[in-house]
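Why do we care about 3D structure at all? Because function follows from shape, and shape follows, mostly, from sequence. That is the central idea of this module. The next example makes it concrete: a single protein chain, its amino acid sequence, and then its structure expressed as tokens.
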Amino acid sequence: MAIIHINEMTSVNGKVPFAAWLVVGLLCIVGALNYLDRIMITTMRESVLQSIPMTDAQFGLLTSVFLWVYGLLSPFAGYLADRFSRSRVIIFSLFVWSAVTWLTAHATTYEELLATRALMGISEACYIPAALALISDYHKGNTRSLAIGIHMAGVMVGQSLGFLGGWIAEKHHWSDAFSVFGGIGLVYSLILFFLLRDVKTVNKPIEEQKNPLNLSFSSAIKNLFSKKSFVVLLIFYSLLGIIGWLVLGWLPTYYKEHFNISQTMAGIYATGYMHPMGLIGVLFGGYIADRWARTNNLSRILVPIIGLLIAAPAIFIASNTDVLYISMGGFMLYTLTRVFSDTNLMPILCMISDKRYIATGYGILNMFACIVGGIGIYASGLLRDAHIDMSILFRIAAFALVIAAALLYLVKRDVENSFNN
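And the structure:
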């Protein structure tokens, strides 16, 4: 197997070396496994309950515990990727969560199952910050947004393949799915051990080279929060997390109640296009941001702003019509353009933060998005209990998207000022 080594100069004659794209391809598979392993338990509820009796609240806690642990540990997990080798953090994370996935197949009690979900949250938290930071290391020019978009597409493929867990559980046994995909991850982690490497730091100014001995978690936190634009970006991404979880969690209910259709059809309308449109969106948003970056250094901020300003009226129209297909079209357009922010978030972070702390910074953004997203779902449930119409909540979400665009505009002004100084 060839071992990937590439120095800081990631383009030759204006072209990105094959190795840089190979890294993206390798991590696409890891990203797909990352989301597949975490989500497939939600598709096999009946099969799991037949083997391990539990209440619906206990079953829901299996996902909640994962999300809480995953979110809270994300900043420290990002710090590990800044402090140590990014590639080794990725490989170790994949190996451990795959082992935990395999171990889940051998759980016989609820307590054991809950423990494996918490362990999975710990191990998976280390992946995303390290992966996006490594991709950013390899793609420093006009390919960064697209490269991250391709990786995000891999993540979405993993989300959409979650149904395999339910299918395997129905045809065989629920534990078989965890044994199969846990085993695949263990084997793939060994393959990556020989293939995946960090970017070399040769020919790099000494002050820009990563010196692990000078990095500490407290200094990373202090440095990141000393920048106004990072705080604004944190508020922006948290707000986006609330909106995303609100739409994802309540859209099936909205379709069912507002258009008086069956639960099955509401689920198909609400989720059938989400992953395909999101996949197209991260690729398109990355591509146009990179193309525009050739003539405008602020393109990776401007593209998400434009996307949000399209998504806002789209979701407003979708929640103010009695025509089902107009509503579907609006939510499809929302899904397509909202994810422009996801594919450009790490490139924006690279523009405003110390390069030594970008993985830590992304971990912090991820943590707040998880926490406030969960709060948003709960708060919307309280509003539902108060008999607030779902269409009103979606109109609020549309207004919140405009606020998010305004926050990103503040980041743009800050970056613009830094270019001029």
